[in-house]
Specification:
Length: about 180
């Protein structure tokens, strides 16, 4: 893919592979998570599809499910995965570890990370990538909601206007 401008950074935004808690519909939030065999296969598919890309860096949330996905993708690139808490999933507070279908209609606890804080982290992540890797290709492995927030900030949209990413889905943003 040709870059339009020499200083434009291309961000390949990826959601981690499927986890045990995804399968069991458990709200993971900022828990570490464990990839399923299918999740590992999903990461391998992204790795194979991205093997010829010239990435300057591969970045991941510092949560295990993202780091494990990123490590698989990084194999052919011989890059060490850079970890950052900016890519962590939204902190779901008292909803963490709960069965998602049971949460419908429940009052949100006060300890859930605010949308403002989540969007602020997303903006900080975009600024970090642009400043640290100008004109480069970067692959970043995050989570469903934080990736949504990054795209909402990037496109200047509401979170509800951004389509949810599936496990191991890749979206490309020109920063």
């Amino acid at each position: 893919m040709q870059q339009k401008y020499a200083n434009m950074t291309t961000l390949y935004l990826v959601r981690h592979g499927e986890t045990v808690d995804n399968v069991n519909q458990i709200m993971q939030g900022q828990t570490q998570g464990q990839l399923t065999e299918n999740g590992i296969r999903q990461a391998e598919e992204v790795r194979d599809n991205m093997a010829l890309e010239d990435f300057a860096a591969i970045i991941a949330s510092d949560l295990k499910r993202s780091v494990d996905t990123a490590n698989v993708i990084a194999e052919p690139h011989h890059l060490e995965v850079v970890q950052t808490p900016l890519l962590r999933e939204r902190d779901w507070g008292g909803f963490t570890g709960r069965y998602i279908p049971e949460l419908k209609g429940e009052k949100w606890p006060d300890d859930i990370e605010t949308l403002e804080n989540l969007l602020s982290r997303a903006g900080e992540f975009i600024a970090f990538v642009k400043k640290t890797y100008p004109g480069k290709k970067v692959l970043a492995v995050g989570h469903g909601i934080v990736n949504k927030a990054i795209q909402a900030v990037y496109y200047g949209k509401q979170m509800s206007e951004v389509q949810r990413m599936t496990n191991a889905e890749v979206r490309i943003l020109e920063l």
